[in-house]
Structure formats: C-alpha cells, structure tokens
Amino acid sequence: MTFLLRAALVFIVITFMVTSSAIAQQNSNSDITKSEAAERARYAENGRVLKVEQTAHKYRVKVLKKSGRVVTVDVDKHSGEVKTSKDRD
To answer: What is the CA radius of gyration of the chain?
Structure first.
C-alpha cells in the first residue's frame, strides 16, 4: 500500500509541475491586445482614443485630451509599458 501511495504522490507532483510550466510559458508568450493597449493609453493620458496602429513591437495610440490636444502614446506589446510623447524625448 505504501508503494501505491508514493507512486500516486509522485504522479500528482509531476502533473502539477508540467501544468505549472505550461501556464507560465503561456503567460510569458502572450502579448497585450489592441484594446488593452488603447485602454492603457486612454488611462495614461486621461482622454479619448482616436486611433490605434500596430507595429512589430508596439502599439501607437493617438489620444484626444480634454484640452483638445492630440498626443501619441506608444504601448509595448510584450510588457504593456506606456511611453508618452514626453517620455520618448
């Protein structure tokens, strides 16, 4: 009985490790979506999103601020980091 209990425990541990590894790998490979980029840019500039363009590594989002000024915000696809026009200078 002890052998069966140890075998079951090893099976559970191995299954948990494989599942955890697959989930971690899936999360590390996923990019943020276009709508997530738009929402991050909207929040960062406190305005209305006019346009979202996609490049290989980033989203370029045009935001209309309440002052009437249009600003461009870059959002990194992988990290989700937001860079406003004043951050890029």
So the answer is: 22
Q: Which domain holds residue 51?
A: 34-88
Are 34 and 54 spatial neighbours (Cβ–Cβ below 8 Å)? Answer: yes
Token digits of residue 22: 């697959």
Each residue's pLDDT, cut to its tens digit, for the chain (89 residues) gives: 688 888 777 778 777 676 655 555 545 568 999 999 999 999 999 999 999 999 999 999 999 999 999 999 999 999 999 998 765 43
Instruction: Tell me: do 8 and 22 sit in the same domain.
Output: yes
Q: In this structure, are 83 and 51 located in the same domain? A: yes
